[in-house]
TrEMBL record:
Pfam families: Lys_Orn_oxgnase (PF13434)
Gene Ontology terms, MF aspect: monooxygenase activity
Keyword Metal-binding appears in the UniProt entry: no
GO biological processes: intracellular iron ion homeostasis
Pathway in which this enzyme or protein is active: Siderophore biosynthesis
Coiled coil residues, start to end: none
Keywords, comma-separated and alphabetical: FAD, Flavoprotein, Monooxygenase, NADP, Oxidoreductase
Protein name as annotated: Ornithine monooxygenase
Protein family: Belongs to the lysine N(6)-hydroxylase/L-ornithine N(5)-oxygenase family.
Entry annotated with the keyword Thylakoid: no
Length: 434
């Protein structure tokens, strides 16, 4: 066990994906500009930086402009822009010749890794936060003690004045799959590339089910068809049809940073109505180009008569069984009432993520939190005796809008949180000098 009490960090960031990576940049910039000393530390459970590694599929492109990178909307002159990454890697002219706003997902991941490498000294990889405890002086909570577990099973303890939680969503496993959740033949899309080659689908006629009606489900279906040409693939979803995402320019303005202020200023019921109204920008929808690709594939199957990919719309999964032969799925047609059962060698769940307010490790400080609604700067409202700031990134869709779980607001949100955190350092220095 290692006890690291020598340094009390000004903030510990839980998770080091794009959200806290953007925060690392914003904190560095704010500290330099204000000439304040600020000591952040970011703790990431993965052994190295990877962004959605399980879905870095060959040929998959971003669905968001490269200009919505970690910093450009806040400061296009920053050395951490995607354009500067291209310049430093010698690919700027080649990218311009591609004539696109949408780089491949693989390249954007490489950009994020390039930025993350610049903050290596502030990052502890291969550690999972397991507990956060209040440190008190009298009746006042002055700081937090943060416990993490390493991949080797060791424990590290750190102190921090503030906390920023940005660990992403938890892969959502529908309740009907609960009894086979540990079956290696059941794979959530978040682990798709990590596990798909290990379930024995190569070189033989197999059956695979993909569950879901959105972008990930469609991408996985097309990748499976390319990767395992002998496999029969059933795409199972509840809607009437696969639907295109709405990325038209006027609708896209809901992802502008200024829209966050508009959403936050609305009464709760109006916020819910607005989020529902724009769900077709992000949930259970597919990029139009990808829909065209899948439709052409299905049409060519009709021409050749060799059916390898089949769609099952309006389908409700009602029961699951598993044995040595495979995972059996029982379906009911939601409208016509017919039912059938099929057995699969593998089942891929493209069922999204659970982003309910976290997290077990925050349990011991819950009593200081007034409610689970975050303030405008993504911070828990806490009792007066609780000094640490606790910010959450990616858990405020209901109060801050659909952009909260996406890349669109990274540059501005990180700036807002950084300024909030740095304000406490300024106040401490003023008190110390008084």
């Amino acid at each position: 066990m290692s006890h690291q009490f020598a340094i009390e960090h000004d903030v510990i960031g839980v998770g080091f994906g794009p959200s806290n990576l953007a925060l690392a940049i914003a904190l560095d910039e704010c500290a330099r500009r204000s000439r304040l000393k600020f000591t952040p530390m970011f703790v990431e459970r993965q052994p190295h930086f990877t962004w959605h590694g399980g879905m870095l599929l060959p040929g998959s492109d971003m669905q968001i402009s490269f200009l919505k990178d970690l910093v450009s909307l806040r400061d296009p002159t920053s050395p951490f822009t995607f354009v500067n990454y291209l310049h430093k890697t010698g690919r700027l002219l080649d990218f311009i010749n591609c004539r696109t706003f949408y780089p491949s997902r693989l390249e954007f991941n490489e950009y994020l890794r390039w930025v993350a490498a610049r903050f290596k000294s502030q990052t502890a990889y291969g550690e999972t936060i397991v507990a956060v405890e209040p440190v008190t002086a009298g009746q006042t909570v002055t700081s937090l003690r943060v416990y993490s577990r390493t991949l080797a099973g060791g424990e590290t303890i750190r102190l921090t004045k503030n906390l920023v939680v940005a660990v992403g969503g938890k892969p959502y496993i529908p309740e009907v799959f609960a009894k086979v959740a540990d079956d290696p033949r059941l794979i959530h899309s978040s682990r798709y590339l990590d596990r798909i080659e290990h379930v024995g689908l190569s070189g033989r006629a197999t059956r695979v089910a993909v569950v879901g009606g959105g972008q990930s489900a469609t991408e996985v279906t097309l990748d499976l068809h390319s990767r395992f040409p002998h496999a029969r693939i059933d795409l199972i979803f509840r809607g009437h049809a696969l639907k295109p995402s709405d990325s038209s320019p006027f609708v896209n303005e809901i992802f502008n940073p200024s829209f966050t202020d508009f959403i936050y200023g609305q009464p709760c019921e109006r916020r819910e109505a607005i989020v529902r109204n724009f769900r077709n920008t992000n949930y259970a929808v597919v990029d139009s180009d990808l829909l065209d690709q899948l439709y052409r594939l299905l049409y060519q199957q009709r021409v050749s008569g060799d059916i390898k990919v089949a769609l099952h719309p309006r389908s409700e999964i009602v029961n699951i069984d598993a044995d040595s032969a495979g995972i059996e799925i029982g379906l009911v047609d939601k409208f016509e009432g017919g039912s059938h059962r099929s057995t699969y060698d593998a089942v891929i769940l493209a069922t999204g993520y659970d982003r309910e307010t976290p997290h077990a490790f925050l349990g011991s400080i819950r009593r200081y939190v007034r409610d689970d609604v975050l303030d405008r700067h993504y911070k828990f409202v806490t009792s007066p005796a609780f000094r640490p700031q606790i910010h959450l990134q990616g858990y405020a869709e209901a109060s801050h809008g659909l952009s909260d779980t996406l890349l669109s607001v990274l540059a501005t949100r990180s700036q807002e949180i950084a300024e909030s955190l740095l304000s406490t350092v300024s106040q401490r220095e003023l008190v110390a000098s008084a």
